[in-house]
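Exercise 7.
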Amino acid sequence: MENKNGGLQRKLNPMHVWAIAFGCVIGWGSFVNPGKKFLPNSGVAGTAIAMILGAAVMIIIAFSYAYMVPKYPKAGGEFTFTKNCFGKNAAFLCGWFLVVAYLSNVPMNSTAIGLIVDGLDGKADILKFGFHYQIAGFDVWMGEVLLASAILILFGYLNIIGVQKAAFVQTILSSLLITCAVTLCLTGIISAKAKGINMEPIWGFDKSAAMAANATTAEIGQFAHKGTGGILAAILATFAIAPWAYVGFDAIPQAAEEFNFSFKKVSWIMVIAIVFGCFVYTSNNTVAAAALANWPDRVMAGDWVVLVAAEELLGTFGKVLIGVGVSCAVLSGIMGFYLASSRLMYSMSRDGYLPKWFGVVDKKYSTPKNAMIFCVIFSLSGPILGREALGWFVDMCAIGASIGYFFTCASTLVTARRDGDASAFLKTMAAVGVIFSVAFMILQLIPIPGLSGVHFGKESYYLLIVWIALGFAFYMKERKFFTEKD
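Solution. The predicted structure, written as tokens, is:
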């Protein structure tokens, strides 16, 4: 149905919105990062504590979103809040970094598609055909690029032809995803009771040092995180990327103009998405360690530990279970972040912060077509850069989300003081959210002695510089708008 007013249509119900949020929160990382980051950096205990603390902080920040969405029920979310509370320049800064927080998740998920096929195939060679090259020591093959690119284009098209169709697909994917995660968790609990649990080293270990020393399983303990400083570093290594882990619950305000239900339900939808997300991250990580007595060896060998654990617990069915689960996680992440990114860029363009081209709405489907085309083009960088770019995109997402959280909580404090309709509890939560947002940014950007592995890697700094330069170019193109008085 065409929208005669040229805007967005209200077609999203609460289940659609939960599916968008949860599908964004849980992507490839919940299935791949236990072996790459969580277990070596933080172990079982450190990851569980970090994820629970991260979920608690996100729920605190969610109170600010729940307060602000009814105040400004427009696409754009944090950008819209900041524009009304801090003016044009702050709004552009917030909006541009939010775009990278959402949009970086799309190529990030796409690079995991080849991993899924390789892991399930066993031979790891189905997609390894055609030309290939190396980036950061990782081989990128034409077959992987073609498959990932095809999926990115397909899901971009689904978002263009109608939000309701996209939301329906998202709901199916998110429902299958949580079903797979719960099944794996229950299986892991039953198996752990039967075999006993050995998840040492529970606080993780220094993977780089262990690799340099070519350590065996018996020697891993020498590199385990111990003592107050080591345990704190283990927890912070995962806690610092909580903005990346939970980014997606805040995608809800981006679709505010398309809700067909009361804004009073927003807070509960956010909290449920965060809690479900915490469960999946913690469960996958714990089950992987519990099922594999020699998980440090598996980590050192570069194995996909969640897949290996599922296969050990359930045989071929376990492999299929992980295949379905991670496929749903990847595809729901692509779908959800496409929606959030395009709506944010549409909102910024409509208000004059980005060129008008980004604000074009498709006459037939009433969706931000040009913004979506830009998102697809940007996302195609993922398959080209290869799997080693995953960590770089994680860092970009984490800093962008932290900036968005900061401005949302700060906007809540300004609005609460202006309107005088907020409780002392809400204002306290908003103040705490500001503090944690700043703490996340410090942990991500500034190297702190004794906390190795927490802050950005050099490649991430390069990407950050490129993104800032691109934003500056757009800012200068619209500079007359930014210098005009309202």
